[in-house]
Amino acid sequence: MFSENFYRRRWIAKFATFVLLAGSLATRAQSIYTARINPNAVLVNHFEGWGTSLCWWANVVGGFSNRMDYASLAFSTLKLNIVRYNIGGGENPNLTNTMEFRARIPGFEPSRNVRDWNADKNQRWMLRQAIALGADRVVAFANSPPWWMTVSGSVTGSSSGTNNNLKTADEKLFADYLVNAVSNLTALDGVHFDFVAPMNEPTANWWKLGGRQEGCHMDAAQQARVVSALRAALDARKISAGIQASEDNAEQETIHSVAAYGASQSNVAIIATHTYNANNPDGIRHLAAALDKPVWVSEYGDGDASGMKMARRIRDDITELRARAWIYWQVVDGGGWGFLRNRLNGRNSDFSLNKKFYVMAQFSQFIRPGFQILDVNDNNSLAAYQPTNSTLIIVAINDRRQSLEVTYDLQTFATLTAEIAASRTSPAENEATISPYSVTNKSFTATLIPRSVTTFTLRNITLRNITTH
Q1: What residue ranges of the chain have pLDDT lower than 50?
Q2: pLDDT number for residue 468
């Protein structure tokens, strides 16, 4: 005979099962939705591509016997077409060098009135190789002026981290230093520089004397003067390169800096921001629109080897900022920071590929320069269209622990292909070709497995009228 407690426990168990099932069904229901791609709303009319900084990895890797393997993976396989070349400052030889091995970028003027155009051979080799492998946008940028132009006497920063470390009297001299570097590397290495960025994260407070890398605090007033001096120096040498600014660590800091430039705003060709702290994409977009300047995300990086955090950042930066170019910090680094994993201490030239490498490929191999970025009402998707060959690319991100079922509504397209190719990177796959999808009634439904990035390729697809936003 069963006791009253038995029936009570049995009822509680059934109720708990019902609650769990209901919760599961609710969760599943929330994971099924429709995403509509709107070809009549173009967010970016001409995407310019993907890139990497060359420092610090090229400073080390450029001296390896297997350096070509690194170059091929970065610029042939990932098809990165933008490179940021670091014009080093070079540390004061009279100080104990506190910088990491990888971050010790040689300068071209080791002391006042002394020039060394044989310096920085490793990074310069990688720059030339990147161009040979297809890179078509080159940016020169500086983390610090040469040590002898600094207040502290060191390229690592000021004593406080909050004071300007470039001597006011040497602002024009610093502009000349950058132009001399660009001009001489063009003559010596055959490199055409498209842009110059005279500072890097200039309003940050972490560029302190004795730090682990080059860095220089510059307030907005000094930035404006340097930008104007650089434009004048470039013009005097008849160098057409544009200027990128302000290269701040966060969007809001970039807004504060550029908004304070006054008349110097006219000397800025591209508003370049880093998105380590993505805190005001709307503000960047509105500032760029008001100044009629394009936006580049010129640097972002994270330590997540899976690449999922990066994938989310790519999608949000391009759709929310309307970024025309997206550049990762450096393709080689230790831990989860690099696409290729190497500690960059110079002791070992071997490397391994992080999952992040394949996640990057899901974007960079498919969405190429010249694509248009289209609006899609789904924060998990990035849609791009190439008018010259009628190709639509959709990159879908699922950074959750559960599957998502998405129906892509393509009703507003004029004509569609019958079959869709698909490639996926997940915890168990690296750019795996998966079964093609079929278009039915101008839509297709895809299951996005957990922690995955899937790229869909639709060819021979035509658009109706296009409106640029």
Answers
A1: 1-30
A2: 60
